[in-house]
Amino acid sequence: MLRELADGEERTVGQLAAPFAISLQAASKHLKVLEKAGMVRREVRGRTHHCRLDPGPLATAHEWLAFYERFWTDRLDVLERLLRAEDAQNPEGRRPMTELSTLDPHGVLVEPTTLRIQRLLPGPIERVWAFLTESDLRRKWLAAGEMEMRVGAPFALTWRNDQLNDPPSARPEGFPEEHHMASRITELDPPRKLAFTWGRSGSVAIELEPKGRDVLLTLIHRRLPDRDTLLKVSAGWHMHLDILVARASGKAPAPFWDGWTRLKDEYDRRLPA
Predict the structure, then answer these.
(1) Cα angle vertex 67, ends 66, 72, to 5°?
(2) DSSP 8-state class, residue 149
(3) In degrees, to the nearest 5, what angle opens at C-alpha 133 toward C-alphas 147 and 98?
(4) Which residues is 222 bridged to in the sheet?
(5) Sheet holding 114-122, edge to edge
(6) 95 and 214 in contact (C-beta within 8 Å)?
């Protein structure tokens, strides 16, 4: 309403209410608040209320803000100098410029049936932990399913990979629109480690380690029963973790199924038979 009056012209209550989805009575209540603050003057002519901006209080507010703007600018300059000095004394506090910055996104076999794959994510660690344990966040990169945070707690994961992208990429033939898996928490150390069963025999452990302002995620998937499963799971974790990085970084993720199809062939060439 103040913006409508900023040109110095009068407006009626009806004119001020028109741009908003509110009644005349609600608009009048808003104007009474502005009147009490001394920002608006109202004049009644017959049955019509005419309003005009009084810029005096706004000028006072501007002067007050200008004073504190100088105050905070000085303080922020000091803060910047302190942070730069801290970075110089503690290089590990910066975003890693070592081997972590060129981390290989592909998974590797650490044993014949055990896959390890890592990602570097923007911190803090508590935020990354939430992406692992909270269903509303986890469904954006992996699968939905509420978790009770205790060892031994059962839970169910529901994959809807078509919904990881908008618009979704084409699903390969033979894959259902939705997939379910029952699981159980086997290890829990918030916010650093989460381990759970995978299907009837496998297991997954995810560990988080702060690295300066980032977080190193290490996922280990054990007891993959055969090569076909190994290739599908390797490509799956690769794409799901890529989507996690994108979501945590505020970026649009790459199409899941397109990437999964390409990566399955890549892992067939990379992983020893």
Answers:
(1) 95
(2) S
(3) 155
(4) 203
(5) 108-111, 114-122, 214-222, 202-211, 193-198, 179-189, 154-159
(6) yes
Q: What is the pLDDT of residues 168-200, one digit of tens each?
A: 888 999 999 999 999 999 999 999 999 999 988
Closest to 40 in 3D by CA, of 17, 6, 64: 6
What global pTM score does this model have?
0.65
Closest of 23, 20, 42, 43 to residue 33, by C-alpha: 42
Nearest-CA neighbor of 169 among 259, 262, 243, 238?
A: 259
- Please give the single-letter amino acid code of residue 30: H
**Residues whose CB falls within 8 Å of the CB of residue 72, separated by 6 or more in sequence, listed in order:** none
Give, as one character, the DSSP assignment of residue 141: T
Residue owning tokens 């017959």: 46
Per the structure block, which two tokens stand in for 186? Answer: 């086997």
Q: Name the β-bridge partners of 51.
A: 11, 42
Q: How far apart are CA 118 and CA 112, in angstroms?
A: 18
Structure tokens at 196: 């759970």
Count other Cβ atoms within 10 Å, centred on residue 16: 23
